[in-house]
Write a structure and sequence with these properties.
Elements lengths: L1 E2 L3 E2 L5 H11 L3 E4 L8 E4 H8 L13 E2 L2 E3 L4 H11 L3 E5 L6 E6 H12 L6
Parallel strand pairs: 2-3, 6-7
Antiparallel strand pairs: 1-8, 3-4, 4-5, 7-8
Length: 124
């Protein structure tokens, strides 16, 4: 999980979204103020799709994905299953105690953990 949630407003131009994604090395941003602190996500593919058909638009003019969430203590296998079931590449990770977003888990995070586990020496 990457701690913290990087967000933008619905009025943010896609050029700024692209700049933030590149400078922060992320593939999605939460869209704040739509229906809660992180209810909607705009992904790099949303931006690419919009730029293929129009000039610089604002975030609210682009089809976005409803955020899917998981508790911080969810096992990676469970998180992967949720991603697969919902067809998403990012989960907003929530604090179990207060339900607030504490980070983002991406498919790349899961792949890194899977790879590390596969290469860990086994006990004899």
């Amino acid at each position: 999980m990457r701690p913290g949630v990087i967000a933008c407003s619905p009025d943010t131009p896609l050029s700024e979204v692209a700049e933030t994604m590149c400078s922060r090395h992320v593939h999605a941003l939460a869209v704040a103020g739509v229906a809660g602190p992180a209810a909607i996500i705009i992904s790099d593919l949303d931006v690419i799709g919009a730029l293929a058909t129009a000039d610089d638009l604002a975030v609210h003019q682009v089809a976005m994905t409803e955020a899917v969430t998981a508790p911080r203590d969810a096992p990676l296998r469970e998180a992967a299953q949720v991603m697969a079931e919902h067809g998403v590449s990012h989960l907003i990770v929530l604090d179990e105690a207060n339900g607030r977003p504490v980070g983002v888990l991406s498919t790349t995070d899961i792949l890194a953990a899977y790879s590390a586990a596969a290469h860990r020496p086994t006990s004899a």
